[in-house]
Specification:
mainly beta, 7-stranded mixed beta sheet
């Protein structure tokens, strides 16, 4: 199939531009960092799907890296404890589902979240932490998912807070994110202090406490 033949693995370039999905972190000097420790980021990082020197991943055997068009990203709010509402804190699970008919893999790292839509994508400043542990390469069969915990500070009507126009980016492609609130309509805006956990193959333990 022609689409299949056009697939290549991703190369990572730290610096300005769009945020790449599931990146390792970037150091202040623009070099790639490992998935240990935590990384605070306010800038975006570029990624291409072409192989080349310094590529972050050269492939997972015969399994290609997942493309943005193959992934369905969702943010599922977790029911708050009473102290979370008092502390104005929100906790949610970020879910990436392979909606294609082909097996692909996600590289080790985090899934940055942004806002603004395809032509005005802006990264939401975030802190990346190794929670619940270091990230790992995840193979996704059709219909299967990977998971990451997220949390943020929230208040009603916070300046710059958002619930709409959320998305993740892979290279130069923006992918809209579906934000699921609770059954009663509770959908707290992302205000600040966004924290991202690492991608994991199961939901067990990924949510922050």
């Amino acid at each position: 199939m022609q689409f299949k033949n056009l697939r290549t693995t991703a190369a990572l370039a730290c610096g300005g531009g769009m945020i790449a999905l599931a990146l390792t972190g970037c150091n202040a000097d623009g070099t790639a960092s490992t998935a240990s420790g935590s990384t605070k980021t306010t800038a975006a990082a570029n990624s291409s799907r072409d192989k080349g020197p310094g590529a972050a991943h050269t492939g997972q055997g015969d399994t290609p890296q997942c493309m943005a068009s193959e992934l369905n990203p969702e943010l599922q709010l977790q029911p708050p404890n009473s102290n979370e509402e008092e502390a104005e804190k929100a906790i949610a699970t970020l879910i990436l589902t392979n909606r294609s008919g082909e097996t692909c893999y996600l590289p080790t790292g985090w899934v940055p979240i942004g806002k603004g839509g395809q032509n005005n994508y802006t990264a939401i400043p975030s802190t990346r932490v190794n929670y619940p542990g270091t990230g790992r390469t995840i193979t996704l069969r059709p219909g299967t998912s990977a998971f990451a915990g997220t949390k943020w500070h929230t208040t009603k009507g916070c300046p710059g807070g958002t619930t709409d126009g959320l998305g993740v980016a892979w290279g130069a492609t923006w992918t809209p994110l579906t934000y699921h609130g609770l059954d009663d309509g509770y959908q707290p805006p992302i205000c600040d202090s966004l924290t991202l956990g690492t991608l994991q193959p199961t939901m067990n333990g990924v949510n922050f406490t």
